[in-house]
Write a structure and sequence with these properties.
about 190 residues; homodimer; 8-stranded mixed β-sheet; 11 strands
Chain lengths: ~190, ~190
């Protein structure tokens, strides 16, 4: 799964404060061939888990989730971000705290597209503190759906979200695991099993 | 191009106020096989136009734009919605008025991913009044990019945006053109060339 590390080394840019910009291929402009590679990698990892839906959160998870869902031959569904509370009886909703924006927002999903029959693969572009993923996991819990795995493109290991989720027992597959970044642009990737 | 009309007849739901819900296959849960059909249809229509990028706006355009970009073999790029003004010199920005939400918002795109060399295919899920598309067209105009075509899944003909854009000389391809909707759920599609 080194292909994403290689791409980050070639085209990612590091800014002070451990900010990694990958907007040339992952979350603003999108390399659709890379999406296919990512989608197939998640498929190879979770193809025996009876996945019924691939789930993500808008906006930058959508391209990744679509690519994965094509390999699984299942629908994808994306949770929506909103600032409204009490959106109605047809939705599951959960509150997410954004550390970067210092604000709370709601994530919602229609009860029609997440059910107790579902075996879910959750995917997203980044895993840092894990707050957004906890919101998605809460939606799955409310629905009684089974979370079979979590597929992440870039995990910022030093922000602890991946460790927290693995300790809770989730199968987290991260294609690039960043151990540290320096302000002068060096990125250290974590070796070993991911 | 009747496949999307058929799908709307089968799975779309009409609510009072000419609201069409297609969230089971197009903009909440997404049928990725349908995305491929849509992407290929836009490709067949615009494959001779030297498309260099497929452009859309977050969030529900992303799945469609990715599917189209795969056929063209080019990157896709999505404009971001924000409420901030004066976002910096690296971005093009334009103001869009939302009729449904009665508010203005900014759409932005990095100057790196939209240039005067570009031949752009814009795609989106809905075309109603055309306000969001006018924002995207303004971004292209600022960049000096050439807009080769606009690919739309569902055009609400009675809201006038498609007519306005065609009168300005744009090539608009809509896969399903809705002439009218009644509160009891009947949808009348426009016949003829789209």
């Amino acid at each position: 799964m080194k292909f994403l590390e290689e791409r980050i080394k070639a085209d990612g840019r590091v800014y002070p404060g451990s900010i990694l910009k990958v907007d040339s291929f992952l979350n603003h402009q999108i390399d659709v061939g890379l999406m296919d590679q990512i989608g197939e990698t998640f498929y190879q990892k979770y193809k025996d888990r009876g996945i019924t839906r691939v789930m993500t959160i808008e906006a930058s998870g959508i391209a990744i989730a679509c690519a994965a869902a094509r390999f699984f031959g299942v629908p994808m569904v994306f949770a929506k971000k909103t600032k409204s509370l009490n959106l109605g009886p047809d939705l599951y909703e959960s509150t997410v705290h954004s550390y970067t924006k210092k604000t709370d927002y709601q994530v919602t999903i229609s009860k029609k597209y997440l059910t107790s029959e579902d075996h879910i693969l959750i995917v997203d572009d980044f895993l840092a503190t894990g707050c957004a993923l906890e919101g998605l996991l809460d939606l799955c819990h409310q629905a009684g759906a089974t979370v079979e795995g979590i597929g992440i493109c870039i995990e910022k290991v030093f922000q602890g979200g991946g460790k927290m989720l693995r300790e809770k027992g989730y199968s987290v597959t991260s294609l690039a695991m960043i151990e540290s970044m320096s302000d002068d642009g060096d990125i250290v990737f974590q070796e070993g099993e991911n």
